[in-house]
Amino acid sequence: SLPGVGVRVSNIVGMASTPDGGGYWLVGSDGGVYAFGDARFVGSVPGAGVHVSDVVGMAATPDGGGYWLVGSDGGVYAFGDARFVGSVPGAGVHVSDVVGMAATPDGGGYWVVGSDGGVYAFGDARFFGSVPGLAPSARPAVPVVGLAAAPGGAGYWEVTAAGGVYAFGDATFAGSAAGGPLARPVVGMAPSAGGGYWLAASDGGIFAYQAPFDGSVPAAGVHVTDVVAIAGS
């Protein structure tokens, strides 16, 4: 971890795991990337001489040889073997509420999601629907905080801060944390290989749906309120 290597930052906004689960990357709002385990560092936004403060998430390529970073305006930065295949500003759309992204299984495209649940598809990523397209009565009253791709790439889930989950394409709805009391808001989600998913709250609480529960930060007796992301192996 960053504290474990003596690095003190307070701007981490996302993470992604390597394909074999043997490592992970962390990303800061300035686009700085930190690699651990078998995750390879293949570049960063500051390293490219670009100065930003609005990076909100990242996604790794299927072979772990690269990654994409996304900004709150939907701008995408590609490193290693990650291919740049478009961005929200490049499509002539002006937003400031992007909250995350997910890559297709073959690495040929990606989805970008906004806090209103709007989804933007690039490369071989296909659009399967989004929260704004739902009937007004079915739309959440709280913001969307993340998106995860279904294992086959033919669908995706969106999750809200209240733990509500919305499934599109062939993504299967397996349950949600909505409707029950949450100690802290949900901050993200990660897909499981079995077609389910995990949700993570800002206190490190984990909610598993058609996915194994292997522990959580509160269950380990650690008390935090600043968890920002989750990545599955």
> What integer is the average pLDDT?
97
| SS summary, helix count | 0
Number of DSSP strands?
Answer: 15
Strand content: 35-45%
How far do the termini sit from each other?
Answer: 17 Å
How does the major sheet shape up? 3 strands, antiparallel
Shape: globular
Strand order of the biggest β-sheet: 1-2-3
- Binned, the helix content reads under 10%
- The succession of helices and strands, N to C, reads EEEEEEEEEEEEEEE
Q: Please state the oligomeric state of the protein chains shown.
A: single chain
Detailed description of the structure:
With about 230 residues, this protein is mainly beta. Helix content is about 0%, strand content about 35%. It contains no helices and 15 strands. The strands form five sheets. The chain has a three-stranded antiparallel β-sheet with strand order 1-2-3, with no helix packed on it. Strands 4-5-6 form a three-stranded antiparallel β-sheet, with no helix packed on it. A hairpin with a 5-residue loop joins strand 4 (about 55-60) and strand 5. The radius of gyration is 16 Å and the shape is globular. The two termini are about 15 Å apart. The model has no long low-confidence stretch (mean pLDDT about 95).
